[in-house]
Design brief:
The protein has 148 residues and is an alpha+beta fold. The protein has four helices and three strands; from the N terminus they run ααααβββ. The protein has a three-stranded antiparallel sheet with strand order 1-2-3, with no helix packed on it.
Length: 148
């Protein structure tokens, strides 16, 4: 085969990912979209809540690998995979490496601004230990305006 006809160097090989996980996460997403009537509802939820949900579903799975979520009737393992997918998207490790602004944006509060996949994310240094992050916010939790 002529490798010069198509250059794949450096491209992610998605065929290495087991396809079943895509279907499993899709089933959970279908349930969530029907329940919340908005396919993007998951983007309005704080990351710490997905971490808690992940731990609940993972513990239920570890206790009984065949167990299913009472509300959805779908396996806890699928719910855990979906929560991990949300966190991978929200955390945006690749995007955050160089885009964190270290200095506070406001003199009255110790907030900093991070850019995550094109969205401004304000993280309060005072409450970040509790996992509170505000996505697409114009002002931090304390109500003090962010100076731009």
């Amino acid at each position: 085969m002529d490798q010069e006809a198509k250059t794949d160097n450096g491209k992610t090989r998605l065929t290495l990912v087991p396809r079943k996980i895509l279907y499993d996460v899709a089933r959970i997403r279908e349930f969530g979209t029907k329940k919340y009537k908005d396919p993007d509802n998951w983007k309005k939820v704080e990351a710490w809540r997905y971490k808690d949900a992940l731990m609940r579903h993972l513990c239920a799975y570890l206790d009984d690998p065949k167990s299913v979520d009472e509300e959805s009737g779908l396996p806890h393992l699928w719910h855990a995979a979906c929560n991990i997918a949300f966190l991978c998207e929200m955390e945006g490790w690749e995007d955050k490496k160089e885009e964190v602004v270290e200095e506070p944006k406001c003199k009255d509060c110790k907030y900093c601004c991070e850019v995550n996949r094109g969205h401004k994310v304000y993280v309060c240094k005072e409450v970040s230990k509790f996992g509170k992050t505000i996505f697409n916010a114009e002002a931090p939790l304390c109500g003090v305006g962010v100076k731009k």
